[in-house]
Fold this sequence. Notes:
Elements: E1 2-5, H1 11-20, E2 27-30, H2 46-60, H3 73-89, E3 95-100, H4 103-116, E4 123-128, E5 133-134, E6 140-141, H5 151-157, E7 162-163, H6 166-182, E8 186-191, E9 194-198, H7 204-208, E10 216-217, H8 218-228, H9 235-247, E11 251-255, E12 263-267
Parallel strand pairs: 1-2, 1-3, 3-4
Antiparallel strand pairs: 4-7, 5-6, 8-9, 10-12, 11-12
Helix pairs in contact: 1-5, 4-6
Amino acid sequence: MIHLVFNEADMKPLAAAMELDESLQGELLLIQDDYAVGPVEDIYTGTGLQERANWWASVLTGGDFENKLNTQADQDDTLMTNIQHRLRENEEEKIWIWAAQNKHDVSGYYWILPYLKEFQGRAFILYLHNLPFINETGNIFYPTWLHQIPAKEFIKAKKLAREITPGEFEVDTEEWAKLCAENKGVRLLEGAKKLVQADYDFYDSELKKYITTDWQKASKVLSHFLNKAKETASEPYLLWRLKTMIAMDMFDVQGNLKKAKEFEIKLKS
């Protein structure tokens, strides 16, 4: 059995659950890119993959997250191609896709569907949306990320695995194709599996609210945003947007712009 997740943090509790329940045991694999942001036009072609790689290079080069440059869509494409080979070679092999109710996981789910369409009946989804779980302190909560779920709760969650239906393969693939053709920079989860799109500057106005008349470390601004804003994005993306606004001379800034902890920012004097 192949298990597929969309966040590195999700791997640890799921691996622990496999140790607790041998029926879950299998190979745990990670989709590395964040398909909730960035260009997606022609993403299943060499041209589209290169455009996305170029965009990520512009976002990550010369900063805190430059080490993430090698975790891009072309590596995910290679991973999914290898999974296709395995499923073709072994007709008993199955794949379980684990996703929580957040735009990152759902965007990743849409992205992988075309790779799995020929394996209907062997591709399963565990979409843990609007479902209560029990946390480490014994309280009921509704997780938005898989890594928030204790390992023992994953054992219960396995009962939710179901085949991706032919209708889902058709409808969801068409919906994703429309989003790819529209090719905006930000994807948002409207409800269930419904994605909508916005422009690259979608988070800018909210991000600006956390910049004050006093000098603050950029890392502090990002931390406040991530902890308080209703709609958030990954820190690399937000730092890129912050630097984009700085390049537009929207704020006063001092320090080394390469590192979020090494430069300060405030509203224009």
